[in-house]
Amino acid sequence: MRDGATAQLAGFAARLRFDDLPDAVVEHAKLCLLDTIGCGLFGSTLPWVEILRETIAAVDDGRRARLWGSGGAASVPNAALINGTAVHAFELDDLHPRSILHPGAVVVSAAMAAAAHTGSRSGRDLVTALVAGYEVGSRVGMSMGAAHLSQGWHPTGTHGTLAAAAGAGSMLGLGDDQMLHALGTAGSQSSGLMSAQFSSMVKRLNAGHAAQSGVTAALLAEHGFLGIPDLLENSYGGYLSTFSPSSDIALVTEGLGEDWQVLRVGFKPYSTNGSCHPAIDALLAMEAEHGITAADVDRVEIDCSTATFKHVGWPYEPVSVTSAQMNLPYIVAVVLADGDAFIDQFSPERITDPELIEFSRRVKVTADPEIDAAGDTARHLTRIAVFLHDGRVLRDERRHASGSAASPLPADAVERKFFKLARTAVPDDAAKRIRDLVATIDDLPDLADFASALAG
């Protein structure tokens, strides 16, 4: 076995077993699984996922792996593509803040596709694969942090390939060297541009492509295909040296197997970019305490990190649902008007409302060097000032968002979110069955019934 960060990470993912996982990790992994499935079921009903599903059906006769919510099936790699896209289809999926990775979309879809290929994996195997993928993707992402995002890369599309390869490789039972080559192949397929957030459907697809690429890399490694063995540490064309102007490779392995990054994965109460959530929390608190509405507000000023400013602070133009979900000025406007930022606030009709567009012009977002100086752990630090027509100024500062590890959603809130989303795709009794299966996933001897339940 080789030395180096890539080899250590591969060895960890290959050797991880369910009995290695602390109880808290297992329970949080189950919440991640439930949240991811809810997002995927809702996503399966959306137009961009329907386009993808119909396009793949026209060229893919495979029926080995089930598609969530639609009752259909596809080949193993294409099932990962479609289900991964569905999970990330409406900005609702889980988030590891420091890596800026949405791990559920890539890992769960890849692991379930790999399980369909093997046909003989248990619920404990799925939980183990989930944790392996979450740890690999989060740690690689942490080593670059916001510098990778600021370069214009979509971390779920890039780091997600490695997370998916680890999750799929775990389900396939890859050994150390095979897992090393799976990661080395997946990393060379990493892609995803943040310009996808403006006027396209592509951002959703980036997650599905990462899941598909990870599954493909794991299957190739299983059959002897060689990847880049020093993927992370190579100074020319290596993953870290190519994808980011700065990185800290020590973060890839520091505390590996002891400091569980899966426990830092949070769940979104709002269907928006995570960088917008602290401002939403602050606005909702102001509405609750002071009874303000959009009609009371003259203008809003927000200070944030440069990464957040680039990500969500640009002038709003109603060109797509994605652009509205990724735009802080629009989100400020709709939260003050509706008191929420969930599904209805991002309908095609709502995002083109002239009053909301006008209000968004009165929201000023500024990158604050002082916030930048606090480093990646302060990337979501947000200072907001709401100027009212009566002359008052309401101010708030939020370092973390509701749903993050620092301010977690209770398990019952995650469950309520699941039901709200799942019921858009499957009957109530089917949603309850899925919930029950997730709760007892570590008791399932195989995943056939679970996969069937997800198909609807």
TrEMBL record:
SUPFAM superfamilies recorded: 2-methylcitrate dehydratase PrpD
Pfam families the record matches: MmgE_PrpD_C, MmgE_PrpD_N
InterPro entries membership: MmgE/PrpD_sf (IPR036148), MmgE/PrpD_sf_1 (IPR042183), MmgE/PrpD_sf_2 (IPR042188), MmgE_PrpD (IPR005656), MmgE_PrpD_C (IPR045337), MmgE_PrpD_N (IPR045336)
Domain MmgE/PrpD N-terminal: 8-245
Ranges for domain MmgE/PrpD C-terminal: 270-442
MF annotations from Gene Ontology: lyase activity
PANTHER family per the UniProt record, alphabetical: 2-METHYLCITRATE DEHYDRATASE, 2-METHYLCITRATE DEHYDRATASE-RELATED
Family membership: Belongs to the PrpD family.
Name by which UniProt lists this protein: MmgE/PrpD family protein
